[in-house]
Amino acid sequence: MQENIDQLVDWKQFYSQYLPGLKPKGDELHGLCPFHNEKNPSFGIKIKTGQYKCLSCGANGNGWTFLQEYKGMTKEQANKTILDFAGIKTESKSRAKKPAFTVEEYAAAKQLDAAKLYEYGMKNAVKGMAVPYMDEKGNLVATRYRHSLKGAVRFSWMKGSKVHPYGLWRLQEARKKGFVVLVEGESDCHTLWQYDIPALGSPGADTFQSTWSAYLKDLNVYLFKEPDQGGETFLKKVCIGLLDSHFTGKVYSLSLQGYKDPSDLHLAGEDAFRAAWAAAFGMANPIDIRIVSCLAEKVIEDQPFAPIKPEKWRYSEHGVFGLDEKGIEEKISPLPVIVTKRLIDIDTNTEKLEVSWRRHGKWEFLKAEKATLFQYSKIAELANTGMPVSSKNAKEMVSYLFDMEAANMEFLPTVQSVSHLGWLGKEQFLPGHANEIALDMDAKRGMSFLVNGFEKNGDFSTWRTCLEYVVQNPIAQLMLAGSFASPLLSVIGHRNFIIHVWGASKGGKTAAMKAALSVWGNPERIMVSFNTTQVGLERTCQFLNNLPLGVDERQLAGDKQEFLDKLVYAVSAGQGKTRGDKGGGLQAKAFWNLVVLTTGEESLAGDASHSGVRTRALELYGVPLPDEREASNVHRVTDMHYGHAGVLFMRHVMEELRKDKEFWHKEYTSVYRQLQDKWPHIVQPHISAIAMLSVAYFWARQWVWGIPEEQAQEEMIRMAVAGVELLGAAQEADYVDRAFDFTTAWLASNADRFKENCHQEKYGYYDGVKQQYWVVPAILKAALQDNGFSVSRTLKEFAEKGIIQRENKGGGKETFSVKKIWGNQRVRMVVFNALCKEEEKNE
Q1: What beta strand segments (E) does 346-409 contain?
Q2: Rg (CA), the chain
Q3: Strands 285-286 and 251-254, how do they pair?
Q4: Given the DSSP bridges, would you call strands 337-345 and 414-418 parallel, antiparallel or unpaired?
Q5: Largest Cα–Cα distance of the chain, in whole Å?
Q6: First to last CA, the chain
Q7: CB–CB of 11/48 below 8 Å?
Q8: Which pLDDT tens digit goes with each residue over 666-675?
Q9: What pLDDT, on the 0 to 100 scale, is given for residue 585?
Q10: Does the reported pTM lie above 0.70?
Q11: Of the given ranges (103-112, 764-773, 807-816), which has the lowest mean pLDDT?
């Protein structure tokens, strides 16, 4: 059939209608190749058969392929065109096919301006959307078709096209700005150009060629890395190309958190794009192309890092293998194990390695000190974590991990880490404001239940609305203020203190506690109970660092008042005891600076508690949330909506610190002086704590709830007044007063034992003339001790206040028992003067 058509078709006339510049030369036509840009003619067509060939780009074919490649026709369309040209009438079996994929469809799917796309030279063709690749001068060098958005075959090149970077004709704009973003494909270029961001596209993840580096000369190059295997390949391929061409510019790795690429982010909205892109661009990491070029390819598709395999070792999805002394390979682990990260603790400067292994299709991670990983006797202890190690393969595993770290010393991702929340230096804070610092939970085993609670959930607006009921109640209001005040303690230099809310059950105490803790996260997960040990509480405080500690249900401690007093002192001291390390030496001493929120049905301090316990705790007796229905609603809402307010509050706190380092200290000092002037009789620690709560509450109400300054000030004043009224007078925290009250009651209840005609054990005698009680020291000592009072301290303070007599023993020494004649013997007795305190005598 074709031979007959060749006799009917004037191929010279046929081709000349499409290529007017053709010139006859012998039995051929010669001219410029239509399939690539050239200056010297290398395209020839045989006049007799219509066959063509380009000696430069290699394009070849006949009239039918010419129409398909040059005009974008289908085979059917090309055949009909040639038959019509030859005068052979045909009946169309079907209508002309529509383009498989259009510019308009592409623009709608990617939310792009179709008019702009046409300006870039894109057009509709039967094969699909035609994307022209042009050089820096705007000359067409290649055409790529896009057939669909998804599918196995989305792209194809026009026959004869050579792969080039996309967007070369716009490089001049990049040179004006001094940088370019290198991405995969055309759509990300179209997106970035829409935001006036200079971009250049590589047609595929592994297509970058070293000769393309010349286009990037004098530019800072930002390599956009997609979060998949293709992204890893793209990053490495480009770095290899840049290295081979001796590229000397700066290169950065750029990625988006939660989005695959710029086009994906653009679909989230213009505002979201601008904010997220600015953040990602500012956090782009400089990379050494020499190091990235050397990185190993992934052995297992989903492995988190591809380390270089050390000599004599290999790993695969089937395990870890090594060569024995005879050079025979043996398996040392049934699971693949690799080193994936190096962590450097910013507080201690100690170094750890992250080791990963794959089990049941999932990678598990462990962070451990090198002293553990590289010692036979210690690494076997990691078996409890699930790591495939035991005493049987410990020696080989140590050697393997040591060699792997050595082989990847320059390539391992290195991150700074901490083992606590709260302030990290003076400019970063966890949670929410330390994105480049990793939280090393392996350093705080047992704290995972806490850290997993410090997260955002639910709706911020719903939480704020619910908390409006909380701030109407003074006790709950003070607890909420304590939650916001906790991270401000270290900024101002304030000591730790406790807010203890106690009273009858069903008073909304736990609901108020949950409301306060929901500022930072899930209250059910970050609240602990009094059923703990001093060491456990210290470790929790150390981990929280500057975030509030919530301890519920004081009654769980029972009648262990001495234990409670020790806990109060330990927590408020802000530092743990020096303890030995099981590996030798001493553990790093624990420190913290926070507010403690506690609740219960009993007072925190007992009758015999030292005054230090009372001054360190704001004891608030009452009902925090009186309406049971509203309290139940607080329970329900804070179970689902939490973690938003604290991050927002700290953003403002840190902004004020950047503007003025003394801002918070000045705010606190101003409020403290006003409170001290108004209530001089309140003990200083309590006034100071109320000042802290007032400052935190004042700014939190403005920043978190958005209320006017005047309203926030009124609420703050009401809260401070309520706090002072709840605390009562300063003498309630005075140890000697409580000891005196106990002693006078004890003397009165045992008055018969001081009479001459007493038939029971006599405790001493009473001088009615001088109104003095003379007490046997051993009996008084036992009474004081049985009721939790320190004998030496009580007698010393009694003596200083003139409640008992003292005797000079000589040599500057004194005793609080006086020698007196009792019966026929001269014995020592404690002599109580008239039973009124010194200040009462002067009234």
Answers
A1: 351-359, 362-369
A2: 41
A3: antiparallel
A4: parallel
A5: 155
A6: 133
A7: yes
A8: 999 999 999 9
A9: 47
A10: no
A11: 807-816
Amino acid in the structure at residue 662:
E
* 394 torsion bin: left (phi>0), alpha (psi -120 to 50), beta (else): alpha
* Stretch 139-150: mean pLDDT: 88
Distance CA 34, CA 825 (A): 132
Helix or strand run (H / E) with residue 438? strand 437-439
Enumerate helices (H) and strands (E) in the chain, giving the number of each.
33, 35
Q: How far is CA 735 from the centre of its chain?
A: 45
Calpha distance 614→169 (Å, rounded) = 76
Length of the chain measured in residues? 843
**Cβ(6)–Cβ(49) under 8 Å?**
yes
Rounded average pLDDT over 214-234: 88
What pLDDT was estimated at residue 819? 78
pLDDT exceeds 80 at position 185? yes
| Token pair of 140 as six digits | 């067409």
Alpha-carbon span 461 to 483, nearest angstrom: 19
- 392: tokens are 């049987």
Is the dihedral angle over the CA atoms 721, 725, 730, 734 positive or is it negative?
Answer: negative
Token duo for residue 810: 């000589």
Are the beta carbons of 550 and 516 closer than 8 angstroms?
Answer: yes
Residue 812 to residue 802: CA distance in whole angstroms: 19
Specify the DSSP element, H or E, that contains 822: strand 818-822
> How far from chain centre, in Å, is Cα 322?
38
Query: What is the rounded distance in angstroms from the CA atom of residue 83 to the CA atom of residue 47?
Result: 17
Task: Pick the range with the lowest mean pLDDT from 334-348, 441-455, 631-645.
Answer: 441-455
- How many Å apart are CA 507 and CA 624, to the nearest integer? 6
Unique residue bearing structure tokens 């700074």: 416
**Rounded distance between C-alpha atoms, residue 21 and residue 209, angstroms:** 34
What is the per-residue burial (b if ≥16 Cβ within 10 Å, else e) of 358-369?
A: beeeebbebbbb
CB contact set of 497 (below 8 Å; sequence gap of 6+): 572, 595, 596, 616, 617, 618, 685, 689, 692
Contact indicator for 748, 630 with CB cutoff of 8 Å: no
Give residue 314's identity as a one-letter amino acid code.
R
Instruction: Provide the phi-psi class of 616: left if phi over 0, else alpha when psi is between -120 and 50, else beta.
Output: alpha
pLDDT reading at 521 higher than 90: yes
Helix (H) or strand (E) holding 582: none
Q: How far apart are CA 61 and CA 67, in angstroms?
A: 10
Instruction: Report CA 367 to chain centroid distance, whole Å.
Output: 17
Tokens 């050595």 — which residue? 406
Flag whether pLDDT at 86 surpasses 50. Answer: yes
448 falls in which pLDDT band (50, 70, 90)? low
> For 383, phi and psi rounded to 5 degrees?
-60, -30
Omega into 431 within 30° of 0, i.e. cis? yes
Q: Two tokens at 345?
A: 């603790």
Q: How far apart are CA 363 and CA 341, in angstroms?
A: 14
